[in-house]
Amino acid sequence: MLQKLESTNKKLIRLLQLVYLNFLWGLLVVLGLGLFTFGPASYAMVAVIRKWLRSSEDFPLTRTYFDYFKENYKETLLISWLYLAVAFVLYVDLAYIQNWYLRVVILVISFFYLLSALYIFPIMAHYQWQGMFYKIKMAFLFGFSQLHYSLVLLLIIIGSYAAIIRLVPGMLTFMGSSFFFFAITWTAVQLFDRLKKKEVTIDKNTFSEGEQL
């Protein structure tokens, strides 16, 4: 009984922390007019959520969030500008191009762009790779290679937000962003761990074959 109460208490605390994270993210985005803080604030939220998922230790939430915010500020800012510019170009193309075949091509490109955008911050938080464009390329390759999981993730997010808007729209004020980033980060962490296990298994099998030879 006590264990169940403790487990429920931890979940409620985590829920409140997600609300607080949503507040921090929104505050920074507003203060930076979106353009100068959206990328760093989003990266910081993903990094904090990843830390929650991979560690049971408590840590100061506010200080950790701002540490991550400052950690890769320049790179995350440039990446957010790049993705914003691409999104603008794709939107203008879809709005003004009337040729059906070209519109299909742009929609396909937009879909792959979305896959890359979903995973760019989890990849930045998880891997210590160098080079902005390399990380963008790997985000695209990861989204494409895990396409079935990415589609399920998109369906869950869209379905969840549709239900929230219909049933409890006020919830978006408190967890609109943190829920979105939590879903993406949780999925990415599971996939990263799964890929790591596969790599370890392959290495072990290769080593065993080498011994037999």
Structure commentary:
Helix content is 87%, strand content 0%. The chain contains 8 helices and no strands. α2 (38-54) crosses α5, α2 packs across α8 and α5 crosses α6. The chain has one domain (2-205).
In brief:
With 213 residues, the protein is mostly helical.
Summarize the helices and strands and which ones pair or pack.
Elements lengths: L1 H30 L6 H17 L6 H11 L1 H24 L3 H27 L5 H14 L1 H21 L3 H42 L1
Keywords: Membrane, Transmembrane, Transmembrane helix
Protein name: DUF624 domain-containing protein
InterPro entries: DUF624
Task: Report the helical percentage.
Answer: over 70%
**Poorly predicted sequence stretches spanning 5 or more consecutive residues:** none
Overall geometric form:
globular
Secondary structural class = mainly alpha
Kindly, what is the distance between the CA atoms of the first and last residues, rounded to a whole number of angstroms? 56 Å
InterPro entries: DUF624
Keywords: Membrane, Transmembrane, Transmembrane helix
Protein name: DUF624 domain-containing protein
Transmembrane segments: 20-46, 78-98, 104-127, 139-164, 170-189
